[in-house]
Design a protein that fits this description.
The chain has 10 helices and 5 strands, in the order H-H-H-E-H-H-E-E-H-H-H-E-E-H-H. Helix 2 packs antiparallel against helix 3. The N and C termini lie far apart (about 65 Å).
C-alpha cells in the first residue's frame, strides 16, 4: 500500500511528459491534423517573430535572408512583430495528394509604407553603405523605430487574400513553403516592397 502513491505518481508524470512532447510538435506525417497544427504554429511564429520557430516551420527565401541579417537584433524583432501583429491565417482547404494547403490571409496594408521607407533609404545610401549600417545601433534605432510606428498605424487590408502553400516534411515536423506571392500576402506586401529595393544587399 505504501508503494501505491509513488507508482501512481510515476504513471501520472509519465503520461504528462508524453502529452507534453506530443503537444510540442505535430510530427512529419502528412495528414490534415498535422497540417492544421503547423499552420497555427506558423501564424504564431510570425506574430511573435520567433526566429527559432520561423527557421523550423517556414521555408521562405525572403524571410531567410532577413533573419540572417537581423540575427536576433531587438530592432528587427520589434519590426517583425509589428509587421505580423494583425496577421490572421485561416485554413480553407487541404490537398493531401498534392501536399498543399490553401489559406485565407488578413493583415495590415503595408506595401506603400514599406516601399516608401525602402526608397528613402535607397536614395540616401548605397547598398554597400546600408549593409554596413545593419550593425549600427543608432541607425537601426532611428530608422527601424520610425518604420515600426508607421506600420502600427497602418489600416487593415480591405479584403482577405487567398494563397496556396506547399507542405513538406522536415526533420521532425512539417514545413510550410512560402513563395513570393504568399510572402507578400502574410506580410501585407511589406516583404515584397523591401526585397524590390534591397534584393542585391540581402
Amino acid at each position: 500500500m505504501k508503494h501505491m502513491p509513488k507508482n501512481s505518481m510515476c504513471i501520472f508524470l509519465s503520461l504528462l511528459m508524453a502529452f507534453s512532447l506530443s503537444a510540442c510538435s505535430a510530427g512529419t506525417e502528412l495528414n490534415e491534423q498535422n497540417i492544421n497544427w503547423t499552420v497555427a504554429k506558423v501564424e504564431k511564429a510570425l506574430k511573435d517573430f520567433d526566429e527559432k520557430d520561423l527557421k523550423k516551420y517556414v521555408e521562405s527565401d525572403t524571410l531567410s535572408k532577413i533573419l540572417a541579417v537581423s540575427n536576433g537584433k531587438e530592432q528587427f524583432e520589434e519590426l517583425g512583430e509589428a509587421i505580423f501583429d494583425e496577421l490572421s491565417i485561416k485554413v480553407q482547404s487541404i490537398n493531401l495528394e498534392e501536399a498543399t494547403v490553401t489559406v485565407s490571409v488578413e493583415n495590415r496594408d503595408l506595401y506603400q509604407i514599406a516601399a516608401d521607407f525602402a526608397q528613402k533609404l535607397s536614395n540616401n545610401y548605397t547598398e554597400f553603405q546600408l549593409l554596413g549600417m545593419l550593425n549600427d545601433e543608432d541607425f537601426l534605432n532611428n530608422n527601424l523605430s520610425q518604420l515600426t510606428e508607421q506600420i502600427e498605424a497602418a489600416p487593415m487590408q480591405q479584403k482577405p487574400q487567398t494563397v496556396t502553400l506547399s507542405v513538406k516534411k522536415g526533420a521532425k515536423n512539417l514545413v510550410l513553403v512560402f513563395d513570393e506571392e504568399s510572402e507578400n500576402a502574410v506580410s501585407g506586401g511589406a516583404l515584397g516592397a523591401i526585397m524590390k529595393t534591397f534584393s542585391a544587399s540581402l
